[in-house]
TrEMBL record:
Record note on cofactor: Binds 1 Fe(2+) ion.
Parts forming coiled coils: none
Organism, as annotated: Nocardioides lentus
Keyword Hydrolase: yes
Protein name per the record: Peptide deformylase
Length: 181
């Protein structure tokens, strides 16, 4: 069990579709323990494996004192919607009003490969949808209208953590400027 660093916006792993879990083994159980420890330490309402750099379809949640996990989730969403503040551990300290389904039926597996069905509404439904989006390479800011997304992106660009994460571009010291001739 370990608390792992959370990957921040701009990390390519957050934009890739995660792979299905095929082995329900000790490694998966360790991953779920690490996800849970990291989520509780943060603290967050949920955490998906890509957020700690692991590209598999697993997430954890912590809503109203209920801690759980789901492997290879599929969702059935209600037609009724909710709009509420949403944030993300990969976009620290940023929140925006986001539209989600009011309730969800999530089907998947536990760490032992046993089928699981989770019925959630309101905050639990929001968390399950948010974390499942992460498994598809989707961030909550992708679900915002254009105006709200622009406002959030201004905040991202101004954030100290974002400036610290920008890759530094190095110039080649060679006469060719790094180009093959």
């Amino acid at each position: 069990m370990a608390v792992r660093p959370v990957r921040l916006f701009g990390d390519p792993v957050l934009r890739r579709r995660a792979s299905e879990v095929t082995d329900f083994d000790a490694e998966l159980r360790r991953l779920v323990e690490d996800l849970t420890d990291t989520m509780l330490e943060a603290p967050g309402a949920g955490l998906a494996a890509p957020q700690i750099g692991v590209g598999v379809r697993v997430f954890t949640w912590n809503v109203d004192g209920e801690v759980g996990h789901l492997v290879n989730p599929t969702l059935e969403l209600s037609e009724e919607e909710q709009v509420g503040l949403e944030g993300c551990l990969s976009l620290p300290e940023l929140t925006a009003e986001c539209r989600r389904a009011m309730s969800v039926v999530a089907k998947g597996f536990d760490v032992h490969g046993e089928p699981v069905t989770v019925h959630g509404s309101e905050l639990l439904a929001r968390a399950i949808q948010h974390e499942t989006d992460h498994l598809d390479g989707v961030l909550f800011i992708d679900r915002l209208d254009a105006e709200a997304r622009k406002a959030v992106m201004r905040e991202v660009r101004a954030a100290e953590w974002f400036a610290a994460e920008k890759p530094r571009v190095k110039v080649s010291p060679h006469v060719t400027g790094g180009l093959g001739l």
